[in-house]
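for the writeup, i need someone to sanity check this before i put it in the appendix. the sequnce is what the collaborator sent (i think, or maybe the updated version? ugh). structure was predicted straight from it, no edits. if anything looks off just tell me and ill rerun, i have time this weekend
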Amino acid sequence: MVIHYKCASNIVGLSKSGMGLIPFRTYTKERILSTGLREQDINYIYILTESPAHSRMGGRCANCCPHILPKLYTYISSLFPKAVVVLKRGGDPFLDFYRIQSAPVVFCGTALFCLWPALANTLGTVFLPITPLFGGATNTSNAPRLGSNKVWLPSRYVDSWDGSIENLVQTLQTK
């Protein structure tokens, strides 16, 4: 299973860009197992995200990822305690493309980085966020039909927040 989690300095505060952070409740055990994948077959879960160097580029969310990613890791680990959860920050993008293209379950973040290899995935179920970045989609009714194994997620991504980074993390955990 692969979760592409777009977490970089430029992710929040760009509401017109179509980018944002995916709330944790998007990744439910029920949703994952509804794909036909059995819990005992989930041995590895890869959380793919940007290199820490990308966060040093500045922006309102430059220090967000070190607060968000450990919480996401803990949340995913609690869903599937027998699986090995790997938080991969950067590295060889072609390995990430392969993981996305060949995984039995994929959750894309709000980034084209995940979309292209996800479109090539014909074996698994690919969950995509509603974002104008992906074919101009603003809701499930005007989202493009990308194949029977592509599922549009109804939950809204978080593209702004008030207050501290802790408030943002709380929003992601409860929204």
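The first helix runs from residue 29 to 33. Residues 2-174 form one domain.
thx in advance!!
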